[in-house]
Amino acid sequence: MPKVLIFGQSFNSNTGGGVTLTNLFSSWKKVDLAVICTAHANGNISSEICDNYYFIGSDEAKWRYPFRYFQRYMPSGKLPIKNTPQSGSFSIKPNLRDIIIYYVLYPFLEWTGLFYVITKMEVSPNLIKWVNEFSPDLLYIQVSSRESLQFATKLSSQLEIPIVLHQMDDWLSSIGNSGIGKKYWMSRINNEFRVLAQRSDLCLSICDYMGDEYKRRYGPTFVTFHNPVDLEKWLPSSEVSDQHSSEYSILYAGRTGFGIESSLKQFAQAIELFNACSAKKIKFIIQTAEILSWPDDYKYTEHRDLIAYNKLPLLFQSMDFLLMPVDFSEKAIQFLKYSMPTKASEYMASGTPIIIMSPEETAIYQYGKTNDWAFLINSDAPKEINRRLKEIVLNEVSKTEISNKALNLVKRRHSKKIVAQEFLEEFEKLVRIEKVVI
């Protein structure tokens, strides 16, 4: 089994990237995996799959003068792992420093273009020593910023082992959306990514839609590997009781913020319209780690904290519908057009009917339309959403058909047992080729 060094994503159970990584690498032995990630990730780590981490801190990540005076010291190296809290439910409440950084400083730096030049990450001697002790056969990379892209390029140049590049979302299309010199930075960073992609021995994408687009943009073929699911854990369970007699329930579980939150608010408004004219009501449940105040403005919308990942299958199966929203703004479409939500396969495996509310040009909408495994809403206007909800919730035959198609698709394309083995075989193939070349 190849020894794989992973850069750019930690194993965890409450982010899309962490869940996808966990499922794809589930066939590996623990001793054959090691991860490089930023020190900020420590505190949200699952050591079930891998417990060999190097945390990038102040030894590698440096701010340029004069911004270095604002940089907070972060330790580097093989530090004690802080696992994700295992409480029954949890939420994230940003402190004042986080609010200033994420909502004031970062937007300003991105608008001016300084965001792309004030920081740099170097491959430190201690990091190289740790890597050499692990002695990897392959380097698996996820990049989500120019900083991580440049670091991945430097690291791959020093190691001289086969590179696997895996793209989770199309952040490359949303660079400098409204800032100074956005065309310059868009062109430059896309060119830097193209260099890394063409140097990589295997390129992976999160869905076929992204793979086709990335081949057109950057040249190499991108093989699709989306989040697979353990069907034994996710398929409908006999433990779920009928809880749907007094009202319909629609759940959204995941992150909020950019690309998502506007559609959630529009959907909440549509629920109010539906319930004003219906004897049987709909309860809209939003489950996120972020603290949200706006659901209090809607009578039939409820916010809940996240629950433990292993409790999600029963939760999903207890609902009448599961919602998968995408915002309709140009920025959101740019960012999410070629993404495939991690929860898509989990939703499909639950047996609960799925509603996709998204612009038609997104990957998730096209996947749902092509394979007919979800109800589709291609508008964020509350009146139009309400009209579609009236058609959807009353059609028992369609709900059964949609659910069965989703179940058949997840068994065929997203089973962890099958996909994880195919993932492993791709890596083994690269190692065999490397040995032949040597």
Question: How would a crystallographer describe the biggest sheet?
Answer: 7 strands, parallel
Number of strands: 17
> Low-confidence runs (pLDDT<50, min 5 residues)?
none
CATH C-level label of the largest domain: Alpha Beta
Q: Give the neighbour order of strands across the main sheet.
A: 3-2-1-7-8-9-10
Mean pLDDT comes to 90
Put simply, the count of helices is 15
The named CATH superfamily of the largest domain: Glycogen Phosphorylase B
Specify the overall morphology: globular
Q: How much is the radius of gyration in Å? A: 22 Å
* Cα-to-Cα separation, first versus last residue: 18 Å
CATH architecture assignment name of the largest domain: 3-Layer(aba) Sandwich
CATH-derived topology of the largest domain? Rossmann fold
Please tell me the total number of domains: 2
What percentage of residues falls in helices of 4 or more residues? 40-55%
Beta-strand fraction estimate? 15-25%
Q: Pairing-aware structural class of the strands and helices?
A: alpha/beta
Oligomeric description of these chains: single chain
